[in-house]
TrEMBL record:
<dbReference type="InterPro" id="IPR013154">
    <property type="entry name" value="ADH-like_N"/>
</dbReference>
<protein>
    <submittedName>
        <fullName>Zinc-dependent alcohol dehydrogenase family protein</fullName>
    </submittedName>
</protein>
<dbReference type="InterPro" id="IPR011032">
    <property type="entry name" value="GroES-like_sf"/>
</dbReference>
<comment type="similarity">
    <text>Belongs to the zinc-containing alcohol dehydrogenase family.</text>
</comment>
<feature type="domain" description="Alcohol dehydrogenase-like C-terminal">
    <location>
        <begin position="188"/>
        <end position="303"/>
    </location>
</feature>
<keyword id="KW-0479">Metal-binding</keyword>
<dbReference type="Pfam" id="PF00107">
    <property type="entry name" value="ADH_zinc_N"/>
</dbReference>
<dbReference type="InterPro" id="IPR013149">
    <property type="entry name" value="ADH-like_C"/>
</dbReference>
<dbReference type="InterPro" id="IPR036291">
    <property type="entry name" value="NAD(P)-bd_dom_sf"/>
</dbReference>
<keyword id="KW-0560">Oxidoreductase</keyword>
<dbReference type="InterPro" id="IPR002328">
    <property type="entry name" value="ADH_Zn_CS"/>
</dbReference>
<keyword id="KW-0862">Zinc</keyword>
<feature type="domain" description="Alcohol dehydrogenase-like N-terminal">
    <location>
        <begin position="25"/>
        <end position="138"/>
    </location>
</feature>
<dbReference type="Pfam" id="PF08240">
    <property type="entry name" value="ADH_N"/>
</dbReference>
Amino acid sequence: MKAMVYYGENDIRFEERPKPEIINPNDAVIRMTKTTICGTDLGILKGKNPEIEESSKNKNGIFNGRILGHEGVGIIEEVGSAVKNFKKGDKVIISCISRCGTCENCQKQLYSHCRNGGGWIMGYMIDGTQAEFVRTPFADNSLYLLPESLDDDSGVLLSDALPTAHEIGVQNGSIKPGDSVAIVGAGPVGMGCLLTALLYSPSQIIMIDMDENRLKMAKDMGATEVINSAKEDAIKKVMDLTQQRGVDCAIEAVGIEPTWNICQNIVKEGGHLANVGVHGKPVKFSIDKLWIKNLTITTGLVNANTTDMLIKSCCSGKLPTKKLVTHHFSFDNLEKAYDVFKHAAEENAMKVIIDF
């Protein structure tokens, strides 16, 4: 089968790989129909996750590559003997988080830190979804039937982007009706934060980015104000928009120091700073200024424990996810899709969908 394989920093190859097989009784093998590229995949490509090579060497000490991808929709080809909730032919959403459902952390709904070999493993510690077939462990707990009323593109977004935005941005940010919210970073997850924040009726959502096209999209999707941080002082502008009070919730959705700095300077006393971005380097935490402000600062990896709710919200029309999809590519053009996604600003790209 064809697959996109990571071999090291700035080295990915679209090549032939063996079709996966059932290894454990709780596995399923899925024929992919749609997948996507995540900012996390680009982070891996840039060398943010060297642990992939270190943990995946064979007995001769050689890293033989890792198939990327942790999102997608597909049709079940085969299930292991222990799988009870799914059968061959079912069309399913593949969660980015695999969970055993029985360990200490799973019992706390901390599925991203499953202690029995689950968590975020697909496209990371095991081969992922940017391939014609994928093996998914813990199938009963890690797949969702795709409702007939829901389009496949929305199903792909429910693998990761929407649950991550909702849980790590909106829920961790404790957004309530009437709150003021600033989202720093208008990429797919930042936009997901905007869409899912609207479910909680905040009075003000300020989107901050350097891309005019993305800011226009944010305005069209419900942002009350937008700020281009390349053209104006984002901190001053937010303070002006909030009568010098700051926001109840600041969501960092990029993962670099400048966006973190904006967030820690615009959150009001008693507010929430929810970090969603994946940081590859340390940032300065201004504890000397923030210790007195009674803030709640959260970090996290998605647990996908709200996926069921988000599926229902999509089916009801409350989450217009189609607005996030800007490009479609055939699987054979996956290399081109990577090039477009890496140059998202020039290509006016948000979420790219790969069709098999």
